[in-house]
Structure formats: structure tokens, C-alpha cells
Amino acid sequence: MGINIQLNCATEDWMNVKADLIIYTGRVDQLLDYKFGELAYRTLEIVQQRFPIQKDWIVTDCTNKHKYTRTTDHSHFNNEIKGLSLITYEYPNECICNDIPYYPMCWGENRKKYYKYLTLLNENPSIILCGRTALYLYLNMDETILTTMDGIKQYL
């Protein structure tokens, strides 16, 4: 009785466990042993530097002017940082091997491949997909939380 939580476990550790409900937040291609091939993701190289105080908190740069896509100045929301800005630069890269899959590349053939995985997963209604990685959607964090809350609402 109760809720059994297993974090950071390999698929083979829990796939055969009897459970009324499984909330899965990882890669669906990995979950199903890459049956239809790998889904593509982008990862980030994150670099931090200190500068004189900057005026902007977060700057998203979608131009080709810089190799980074976003900068964040942590000194605006972290009272521990005084006198200098701590800037984080996010450089997107193709996700390979053991990289962290931050952003799904959810278009074209990848989208079609994801729907094949989804069709297989729909055969097991006890698995609920939650989060950007499992849903294979580019979502902001607020959208990720809202989508997850909506997805599990029927089970609460």
C-alpha cells in the first residue's frame, strides 16, 4: 500500500514491476529499446562568466549573430551574488551518447517516429508520459508543469 518512488533507475529495473500507475519522464525511444531508432535532441553546453552588473536578467538570442542562444544573469535573482553579474551562456549542440537531452527536435521524421513509439505505449495505459523529454515537445518550464498537472489530474 502507498506510493513506491524509484528515481534514476534503469528501464529493466521497473518495467516488470506491478504498478497501478507509472509516471515516466525520460526518453520514450530509450524506454522501448530504440525499436524504431533514436529520436533526435539538442543538448546544451553551459558556460558561466562574471562581468560588471548587467541590466537584463535573461536574453534569448534567436539570430545567427552569436553561437549561444540564451544568457541568464543570476545576480538579479540570487542575493548571494554581489558586485558582479554571473552570466550563464547556453550553447546548443547535437545530443549524442550520454549528453543530457534538453530540447526535442520534434519535426519531420522524428515526429513520425515518436508517434510510432506513442502507439506502442498506448497499449500500456498504466504508463503516463510527463515532461518535455517524454512528451517529445519543446515546452517552456511553466508549460511543462501545467501539462504534467493536466496529464495526471484524472488519476488523483
Give the key terms.
alpha+beta; two-stranded parallel ribbon; 5-stranded antiparallel sheet; 7 strands; 156 residues; 2 domains; 24% strand
Question: How would you describe the overall organization of this protein?
Answer:
It contains 5 helices and 7 strands; from the N terminus they run H-E-H-E-E-E-E-E-H-E-H-H. It has helices at 11-14, 28-31, 108-121, 131-135, 141-152, and strands at 22-24, 41-52, 58-60, 70-73, 84-94, 103-104, 127-129. The chain is globular and about 55 Å long.
Give the helices and strands, then pairings.
Layout: H1 11-14, E1 22-24, H2 28-31, E2 41-52, E3 58-60, E4 70-73, E5 84-94, E6 103-104, H3 108-121, E7 127-129, H4 131-135, H5 141-152
Parallel strand pairs: 1-7
Antiparallel strand pairs: 2-5, 2-6, 3-4, 4-5
